[in-house]
Write a structure and sequence with these properties.
The protein is α/β, with parallel strands linked by helices. The protein has 3 helices and 5 strands, in the order βαβββαβα.
């Protein structure tokens, strides 16, 4: 099974969490894609897609949400998201879940 984790890491903590996830999950061959440097346009070759981000003012950052909105509709794909945060993440998980549902995941 092939997977991708599209992440946005400002301080490196989210990237580190993605690397840990990749090292522990063996049933899926995850490719880690930094949204700032990877020109991801076609997600059809992945069976599962992860979205990793940091909470910014109790929500995903506007830059990351705009990026996710710009992705092609990937209806029917398995998806998950996770976040890193300092002290409080607010509604970041809920907001991302709603955005992924709008994308058909």
């Amino acid at each position: 099974m092939r997977g991708a984790v599209i992440y946005y890491s400002n301080t490196g903590n989210t990237r580190l969490a993605c690397e840990y996830l990749k090292s522990k999950i063996t049933l899926v061959d995850f490719e880690l894609l930094d949204m700032r440097t990877s020109a991801v346009t076609d997600l059809s070759s992945y069976d599962v897609i992860g979205f990793a981000f940091f909470a910014d003012s109790w929500k995903p950052s506007e830059i990351y949400m705009s990026y996710v909105r710009s992705l092609e509709n990937t209806a029917g794909k398995y998806a998950f998201s996770f976040k890193t945060y300092g002290s409080s993440s607010g509604k970041a998980a809920y907001i991302m879940c709603r955005l992924l549902k709008e994308k058909g995941m």
